[in-house]
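Work package 3, deliverable 3.1, input record:
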Amino acid sequence: MDSDLVPPGLTYLADNIITRQNILGVTKEQGARWAQKLNLPSRADTVFFAGCGYQFSAQLEVLMSLARGIDKSVIGSELPMRFARFQKKLGLNLPGIYSNVLSRGGDAEVKPLEAAVKVLRNMGIQPGYLAKNEPCCGATLYHAGLQSKFAENARKAYQVLKDSGVKRVISVVPYCTHALQKLFPLYIKDYDLEVRHFLEIVAEKISLFKLRYPRPVRVTYHDPCQMVRFMNLIEEPRRILRAIEGITLVETDWTRGEWATCCGGGGGFETVFPELSQVLAVNRVTELLETKPDIIITHCPGCIMQLKDGLHQLKIEGVEVLDLIQIVATAMES
Amino acid sequence: MKKQSDFKSYKKEIMGAAHNDRLRLALSRAVKSFRANVKNALEKFPHTVKLADEVLEIKKKAIPDMEKLARQAIASIEENKGKGYIARTSEEALEIIANLVGTKKLIVKGKSMTGEEIGLREHLEEKGNEVYETDLGEFIIQKLGDRPMHITSPSIHVPREDVARLFSKVMGQEIAPDAEIADMVAAAREYLRDKFFRADIGISGANVVAAETGTLFIIENEGNIRLSTSAPPVHIALVGMEKLVPTLSDAFKVSEVTWRYANYTIPSYVSLVSGPSKTGDIEKVTTYGAHGPKEFHVIFLDGGRTRLAKYPLLRQALYCLRCGGCLYECPVFAVTAGHFGDKYFTGIGAVWAAIVNKDSEKAASLAYTCLTCGRCRQRCPVKIDVPEMVIELRKFLAEGE
């Protein structure tokens, strides 16, 4: 990497993006597995952009729990997420560990994505999906400060999308959406992709549906930073939740909408400060629990991971963390 | 390798803070009351939000003009029979002040971030002077031998029991750990009372300076600044050049926005100081040094500010009014306090470390501690885009300028 001032955790992710087109450095086939049974066309005007966060959420959880373990141990102070070297030193085979997790049925990552496609189809949209050819948005490069690498990656990614005949992108991961929508145009001349966030589309059409959650639940909503403070998607999730019968939305006093507290996973922070990031997750969960929810709903793979870990650290049982996509899909089914 | 080890010791420091339950308790209480107070202040004076937009425009114009404004202010101050100086560097500022002060003097000092920035108190003590911090929070910090953990509340991390223990030691009179806070405040008042009147020199900072008249605006609640800048025969003020605005009316606007976003409907005191004390009551002959100071010196510190002003995105750091509101919104600050900082705190602190103090290792540590979550921007009266600045700074650190 260009400078030893970039923390090793971020250079690890950056290297993976540059060499393997995903933040974990695993095969793209692994990422595309979730869509196998959905028969999504690989060529279409409108494509669904799945992003690393959801596609690799199980692997990311493994990575983070390893990183936090290391960070809290004695080795942590010596090797803060210097994974490439660390793997060799300990004979760790991360890709191997990842595929073990997957074969054990760790397919939690499938659910939000599959649900998103089902919701879109119910709304009359038939998106394509580039599967293993889906480029990485490279947002982590940007946040790490590696702007020239981000620009290079963005131009390549844009070319892949254009070559696949894409005109419109429906994206779900907040970081990817922000990158495709706001950052790419800064580096690409005559950028002409229409990029919309999944929730914008759902919020527009939600009133046409009669939605009911299978059981009455008290929920609270955690706004991902990118959604509220960088893309201004504040009312959309609330409009959606209010449209679902059986759901009672209870929000925190101060820390909602544009005032939401970060889950502690901002911009790759959890790889630089794995342990501190966990402290922040616990703090955010503590705030959310004040609303006494049955379910904490959010809409970002990073936030989900953080909030689940926060609940786990607090040893809270009986409270679920679910993606808003899953809630909508479930409410459409019943 | 040095760079890595610096990051490690920094990481150790902030993790130590993050595991300190007392610190977190103190901060979480502070955050709650701060938010409620700001809400109340803004509801009571709703025009403040619009006024803040005006202030942003004032700052946008004033920052590229700092140098000119400083010269204008100095001319005004000298017309008022005070003295003005521009210090290019921290060292220069220390030298100017040390020469004015000399040695074996008793000095009472108001809280000043700029003073902290250049290590003013320590420098004057080394020169053989007796320096008393008179802001209660800063007094606690001085006696603890600690460093400030917040812009407007330097001892925000010290619970009352610790204050009682400290005061018992310092003042030689027993203060029980469960004593009322009012008793601790009274003890500090009694301890400092005679210092104000025995002092040879009073030192202050300023929140805003109007260049057209050379007027310093100093906002406070305790009254220690009034005493420090009025009772001793000499008043020396150290002011960062970014505090300058063209007119008195601009300065009033900046002040009002500053205190309101610092959670006050109205502070108890705002001092406006433009020159030494004078009287013409006997035969209309102007004589200096009536009840206030006979001498008035203002040092405007550049110290990298004009360099910072040249960076299109990073210059926003100079718009900062130092209301401290952003700190209460930072999720990292909520568990680490000022340990996530250097001379200044959090993401803005990273920019200062990089450009003003030219310490790229410290800057990197701070820049990568910022979540870039953007809640500080939400709170900021002048909408400083910390995520944008921090990402720009990371670019400089990672790829060079």
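The mean pLDDT of chain A is 89.
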